[in-house]
Every structure is written in C-alpha cells, then in structure tokens.
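Hi R.,

Here's the chain you asked about this morning:
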Amino acid sequence: MSKKKKELKNKKKSFWKRVRFKYKLSFINESTLEEVWNCRVSQLWFFSAVCVFALFMITITSLIIITTPIRNYLPGYLDAEVRQAIVQSAIRADSLDAALKKQSLYLRNVTAIMSGTMTLDSVHAIDSAAFIKADYDIPRSKTEEAFIQNYEQEEKYNLTALNDGPRLTDNVFFYKPVNGTISAHYDLENRHYGVDLVAGPKESVLATLDGTVIYTGYDTEFGNVITLQHRNGFISVYKHNHALLKEIGQYVVAGEAIALVGNTGELSTGPHLHFELWHQGASVNPEEYIAF
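And the predicted structure, written out as tokens:
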C-alpha cells in the first residue's frame, strides 16, 4: 500500500511540475539572428489566459446585446412596445379582412341584383296564426273571469301602482372617464351618440361605473374600442383609444384605468376619447349624468 501511495504522489508531483514548467518563447530577427523579444510561458498560464479571454469576450458580447437593439432579433426577446405594436397590427389586419369580406359580399349581391341573376327565395314561412280569423276569440273559463274581476277590484284604488319607484341613478356616482374638454356634444339628430373629450395622448381612461368588460376590439372607423356592462341596465363605450388595458370578462371598479387616450380610427382627428352611455338599448346624453 505504501508503495502505491508513493507512486501516486510522485505522479501528482510530476503532473504539477509539468504543468507549471515554463517554456521560453523567443522572437529572433532572421537577418541578424538577434533575439528581439522573449517570454516565459507555462501550460497553466496559457490555460488561465485563454479562460480570462473567453470570459472577457462573453461579457462584452452580453453587454452589446443587452444595451443595443440587436436584442430584438433574438427569439423570445422583444420590447413591450414592439410586442404591443405587433398585437395591434394583427388585430387591425383581422378587422380589415372581415370588413373586406363583408364589402365583397355586398358588391356581389348588388351586382347579382342589377344583372338579374339572383333567384328569388323559394322558402315561404307558414304561420298557423295567419289563418286564424280576426274575430275569433278563445273563451275564458269562469275561474279566469272571477280572478280578473277580483284583481281589478283590488287594484282599483292601489296608489302604489302609480309610483314609479326610485330612479335608476339614485345613489349612483358616475366617474369622469377622462379629464378633458368637450369638443363635440351629444347630438342624436346627427347620429353622434356620445361626447368627444379632448385629452393628452396616452392619458388614462377610467371606468365610469363598476362593471364587466363585454367587448374589446379594433374598428376601422373608431379604432380601439372597449365596452363595459354596468348595473341598472347601463352600458358605457370608450372609442379611439391608443391601447386597451383590460380583456373581455374582467370585472373593473369605478375609476379604474381601462385604456389609454389615443388617435386611432378613420373618424379621429386628434388625441381624444369618444364616450357613449346607453341605457336599456337606447343612447342617453352623458352630460345629464356626469359633470364634465
């Protein structure tokens, strides 16, 4: 055992001695055979120098990639603005494609009508109620007649039936969707179903009431649009946004940022917000509910 240990120890010594042994590297002038420059280099020094050089090159390359736009060409490494621009371009292309298909279908129908090649619809709806005579009346039973008379008698002097109850907007506070100046008022005759609020670009657009996001998308005329469903049958619509911060199905509270003011859409002439307020399917004047 002692002999093997000595041999192993001698091999280790010889290895370190061989690695640390220095070689002389000389540069000699070929004409005069004069030594111009020399240095002593060992295997260990050469290996260490190569490692330091490799580490230096890796560090320099990483700094160049991180601090320059070259990083955008790496897979999976994009700036937030570039990623947002790509998403917006994809949404816009999809909307334009859908609008183009509708327009093409409309033009084909118009062409077919004008050329007389469109055949008439041969399907006719048969409604059994159409054959019932106008003077035909289903007779009421005695029980129904008695119930109707009792109900009319009881409700004849019921004053609560004339009370409309509390207003839908009682105890409801509407937030201003954005701090801005009104540039166009609500005009039902000209089909302007909301108000235009001029504001700074990329300013936060706030939810006017608590509600749920029911629509987000891009429209060629109104740009980026987001719609919220609120209680009491109210729906608020926000158009011409620069970017949308919420997705369909998300619940938002009043005063929460849902988008950024922008200048998107063909009908937009500058950074502003087109805000609409609807109640039970009919548009209402937002200025009657919100103090802009």
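The chain is about 30% helix and 25% strand.

Let me know if you need anything else.
M.
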